[in-house]
Please model this.
Amino acid sequence: MKAAVTPGTRFLPLPMAQARPNREPIVVSSDEAPKVHIWQIGCQMNSADADSLAEGFSEIGLRPGAALEEADLAVLVTCAVRQHAEDKASGKLGELAAWKQARPGRAIALTGCMVGEHGGNLLKRFRHLDYVFDMREPDGFFARVRDLYQGALQGPIPLPASDRLFAYLPVILGCNEMCTYCIVPFVRGREASRPADEVVTEARRLVERGVVEITLLGQNVNSYWDADSDAGLPELMARVDRTPGLKRMRFLTSHPRNASPDLLAAIAELPTACEHLHLPVQSGSDSCLRRMKREYSVAEYLRTLAAARRRVPNISLSTDIIVGFCGETDSEFEETMSVLREVEFDTVHIQAYSPRPGTAAYRRVDDVPRPVKSQRLQRVLELQRSISRRRNEALVGSRVEVLVEGRGADGRVFGRTRQNRIVWSDRVLEPGTVADLEVTSATAWQLTAG
Model:
């Protein structure tokens, strides 16, 4: 029997852990502000965490954004939701041993979901690792860094004007859902919404630094609720929408049970709200959903999507699918394929199930053979490729609003529509420009417009 974690035992933030005193001390001799290299892997929340760390370092006088070879401190923002992501973080940490040894005074810190999963035991596994801290409470780590480098710090270093056009803005942290396959509640904790005033202030600050599109972020973002103002996500969106200079607003990731009529109304009515809804279904089988503890039926999910299309006729829909979950039969998988055919999502993100220690599903037998998982994954990919191609080709000859993101190696510009479709164009347009373009051709994954 595989060991399981008792629910509720890992929700408190972990205290900062640092290397034992008998390790070689970090000797700092520079009188210049230390430089920080931040490496991150995983979800959009980790990207937001990396940005938050950069601001925290600048506030205490360090210089974030350094290349690794120039850095004095390397910080890894890790992911443990899937084994592959954890393996990549472990590999990166292993590579840093030689980097640290190459110059005295260098230090390595680790945060993110691997901390919630393994805690201070990481210091035993990686002898060259200096600090492990929880992103939910980084103050202890910042205080230790400030103490370590105090001789070289001369007060806050203003971050330069951002060259980012897009930013993730966390509005709710953690998750209460306890889906049986998911480790997020154990590594991110229970849901905790940020005050609406704080979110609105941060949105304004981001736009003042050059951001034109903000994605409101949370593991279950549509569970957001501010106790002081009694505001849910629709009300929060209305306030962020009024941010001067903001061009677009999105939100990720929603739970089907909380996709309310008010939320659909916000998408339809707010000028910056993009006509795109990402609503993970995970499986098209009720029996499989019950084993996943998703707390909704396929029929309820389909009614929500039908309501979304009625309220926002030009909305694009995307979803997540897990194939090969414990006990998934051929007939259950075919039910998922039927849902995909019926809905015709614009985009589907597909993963083969992999067991994660600490989850309820980890106690179950992972009884779908890997070749079967691969076969099912390929079938979903093939079906969705044909659906996406057909839906994109239907746009040829129409005009779409494109927010230009950058320029590719071939010189063409690229951007996204309000419905989150990728568009390439030969037009001469600057990043951040919103352009009305005519679609000239399409593939399953992108549009070409002029």
The domain at 399-449 is CATH 2.40.50 (OB fold (Dihydrolipoamide Acetyltransferase, E2P)). The longest strand covers residues 399-407. The chain has three domains: 17-152, 166-393, 399-449. Residues 1-10 have pLDDT under 50 and may be disordered.
